[in-house]
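Ligand-bound model needed. pyridoxal-5'-phosphate.
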Amino acid sequence: MTREFPMPSDQTFYGSDFEALQGVDPDVAEVLLTELDRIRGGLQLIASENISSPAVLTALGSTLSNKYAEGYPGRRYYGGCSEVDKVETLAIERAKDLFGAEHANVQPHSGASANQAVYGAFLKPGDTFLAMSLPMGGHLTHGSKVSFSGKWFNAIGYGVDKQTEDIDYDQVAELAREHRPKLICAGGSAIPRLIDFEFFRNLADEVGAIFWVDAAHFIGLVAGKAIPSPVPHADVVTFTTHKVLRGPRSGALVCTAEHAAALDKAVFPMMQGGPQMHTIAAKAVNFKEAATAEFARYAADVIANSKQLAASLLELGVRPTTGGTDTHLSLLDLQGIGVTGRDAEARADAAGIVLNKNAIPFDPQKPNVASGIRVGTPSVTTQGMGVEQMRQIAALIARAVTEGDADPDHPVSKEVRAQVTDLVTRFPAYPRG
Ligand SMILES: *Cc1c(COP(=O)(O)O)cnc(C)c1O
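Prediction:
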């Protein structure tokens, strides 16, 4: 298949010099094109994804990728670090300002790498920690048996209350008093409600534990001052930069001055080798973007959209767990409409709606089937959609999931997909200049 060279304004979305790539490797160049078509052609409702800016993508696709810079600014193990030192210092200072933190480490390659550093800094193999269990909304790196965190440490998992479906704070306190963990974690991947950081801080103090917040999902809402910050309460806050925050695919952490040296040593040399200086440059750009009034408006809109989407789905018989959401995501229980998460994901996909199946608390189904789906509003909000479009999206999801089919040629798939196309044409991702 031959393709036209993209419009000039598209070039940034493929990196610095798309024509050069096409010449060297047309196969990979083609994937860059078709992936952009895919992003533009559907409704992106994966709660952990977003649409980063051309400025972020340009920094990522830069010659800073070439530089070895093991160590930290001013204390490197390689020569020639004068320029990358500037960019890492910018990223560190901007992260500290953005989150009001005493210390920042911008080198973690991802959210999981930042979390590894927390274990490396505070635990020895066999030590006990307390975190939300994966099936209740936690993350693999919070003690799942298939993760290093569950294999090498004694992970105690807490869950949610059966009635409220929100964090079971009584259980958290009981488990902490019983097991005396060295480390207590708040945060997860499928928590639609705000977390009571003060509760966790007091509990950690009571049992003598480090208090760690894994803010991978919601840190962008904190940056935009749309929800309360964990930073004043926690010893360390890890996060990803590519979810609501809308930066490059990467991670970072902020912490108190007290723990700075231990965490820096845990990131490098304990867990990682050379930092990715191109990604650190992109994180610096992202932190600057996230400090603007425009970003704060976006963060507020992400939540307003999320609340509307959940409310409209509830009206259509698709029940959000906890009854709604305070954040960018909701978890939808499909048991009432008799559809599995796996079928819902496939039906939505056939209709041009990209979302993921997700276990709901106390899910009777296996994880690869699941009784729920998770939807988030970061991407559609970045595209400029508002509450009116959320009502429409709720109707499209409900139609595709309840009456649709995994076959893209099914009449319902086609009908919904046509409406999706209309919507994303009016609110495009990476609009052509
Ligand atoms: C996404 C996520 C991570 C992992 O981030 P990666 O960049 O995929 O490694 C860690 N913790 C939580 C709570 C997450 O949601």
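The first helix runs from residue 18 to 24.
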